[in-house]
Amino acid sequence: MSAPAVRHPGEYRWEVRLLVVVAATLTVFGLANLYGAASMRDNGFMMVMKQLVIGLVGGLTLLLLSRMDYRKLRALAWPLLGVTGVLLLIPILPEAITGGLAPELNGARRWVNLPGFSFQPSEVAKFVVLIWAAALAAKKGSQVRQFKKGVAPFLVVIGAVCALIVREPNLSMATLVALLGSVVLFTAGAKIGHFLLLAIAAGLMVFQLIMMSDYRRARVMTHLGKGSEDSGMQIKESVIAVGSGRAFGVGFGQGKAKLSHVPYANSDFLFSSIGEEWGFLGVIIVVTLYGLFGWVGFRIARSAPDAFGQYLAAGLTTAVVLTAVLHMAVTLKLMPTTGLTLPFMSQGGSSLLMNLVATGILASIGRMRGRPSAA
Fold first, then answer.
1. Contact present, 102 and 93 (Cβ < 8 Å)
2. Which end of the chain is less packed: N or C, by CB atoms within 10 Å?
3. Around Cβ 241, how many Cβ atoms within 10 Å?
4. Per DSSP, what are the bridge partners of residue 119?
């Protein structure tokens, strides 16, 4: 008796369940660390409750998306990209036009305020670009190996999205979006030579943008140890916080990094707070969880029922894992400060919600494997 053409969906079920459990564990652990820091802030309770509500909404969205046929997103790729482009335009329009819709915060306009909630359009763009790129790559097939018909359309559209994000300004997020688009192209089989040429051009462009901006140049100089003592204090305190945790940490809620020693210890530098309070053991647990997420995500990508699912799953998995790696690298002084949050864990409703949405789509791709209709 010959072997079946496809494996039974039940054989894949454990991977989807493990993916959801990992995402849920990271979210709960993030809420716990946020609660530990809340007692030191005047609005700490409201901060935790807001994150909790967004986590619950995101969890429900994850479950709904996991039951949806992910292939419906392919038809929505261009409309979603158009809406995202409009959202990205709002923060860069003059304040006289937008009013309080896109206020300036810490020298940048990255947020859009709507009645009852606010969000970062760039966080939405990060995942919408992946959906669009996966849909286009699946449509073009072997044409992605050609520059004019394959690479050029990606370059134009993703370049335009990144240009809007840079204007906020948010160079680190724009660079991440470009990298994720490249991951989809690479997965689809684009030529390595094209990547090398684009990498050189992009590197020169990023270098120029850094040199044209005082604060970006200062961050790079601080990372190289040539900045002022005050400019390097934040990252220095971050490294000290991680080291002071030793093997088992100073105890939950007992860390001092959040006491203004490390600004944004609840968001951009959350990993340093985890290292201090949970020690090397906590760091290993967090790294293992992200490793598990990546392992399961790429297993889903490898066995996805169609090209669109393969490219999308690979891109979504890379988005979560790469963002986590970059966040950890910053807190350990392995690269200049970027402002990227730790997925599922850092304070930030946009980041938490979109990462849970990405997990739901990944779960949908995983659930569809082994179904004859999908194959």
1. yes
2. N
3. 26
4. 112
**Alpha-helical regions (H) of 224-255:** 233-244
Instruction: Find, among 101, 34, 3, the residue nearest to 342 by Cα.
Output: 34
Domain layout of the chain by residue ranges: 9-368
Beta bridge partners of 114: 117
Q: Is the dihedral of CA 35, 50, 16, 300 positive or negative?
A: negative
Beta strand extents in the chain (DSSP E only):
112-114, 117-119
Instruction: Report how far Cα 223 is from the mean position of its chain's Cα atoms.
Output: 23
Residue 371 — pLDDT band, cuts 50, 70, 90?
low
> Is the predicted pLDDT of residue 106 greater than 60, yes or no?
yes
Q: Which segments of 67-151 does DSSP mark as H helices, in order?
A: 72-75, 77-89, 95-98, 121-140
Count Cα neighbours of 250 within 13 Å in the Cβ-side half-sphere.
18
pLDDT more than 90, % of the chain: 52
Query: What is the reported pTM?
Result: 0.91
Query: Which residue carries 């082994």 as its tokens?
Result: 370
